[in-house]
Write a structure and sequence with these properties.
The protein is of the alpha+beta class and 205 residues long. Helices cover 36% and strands 25% of the residues.
Length: 205
Amino acid sequence: MGLLDRLRTVIGSRAAADASRGADAADLFDVSTAYVTMEANLGYVPTGDAALCFGDVDSTDFRDAVDEVEAIVAAGEAETGTEYRSATDDYGYRWIVLHDRTFEDLVTSVHFAADTLIDARFGSRLLAALFGFEHERDRTRAYWIYSFRRGSFYPFVPDDIGEHERDSTAEFKLESTLDGELDVEGDRKYWYPLWPDRRGGDPWD
């Protein structure tokens, strides 16, 4: 699983201190229409993958809330075909990873999972929701990441050519095309990279 140690500090404690507003899972529904613009204007299509990342808490109430989240996504797997798995990375962050070729169902599942933690008063533990995309022509991976600490989206496009390098040109193009449909984070210092452990992998791998 892949969160760099630096990211653990930055996206957690520093982002909490600089939070612009509280977590609002309803924001996630904005990406369910914005992806149409991405495909039409930029050639990016959904990979069918998304993930919710959150910090762990050693408490019975939190474990109960996570159990409820897993029960919700399990029910979604039966009803809509949205597959899921859960994992804990090397830095103690929890992940709910989802797969569904119907993008709207994918967004709904991520929303339900996040909203359940918020309702259980663990919204402060939510870090990010990630939605994966792939360019139709060159298969370049791109992600829209929703920061619960900032209440906004930002693009992340890893550059497979270098080690932990980003395709800033592609990110800025995504920003300019989707700004207005998504609440894009205006301060780019908060566009935190979530690097995968292996080249070509996803951040949750």
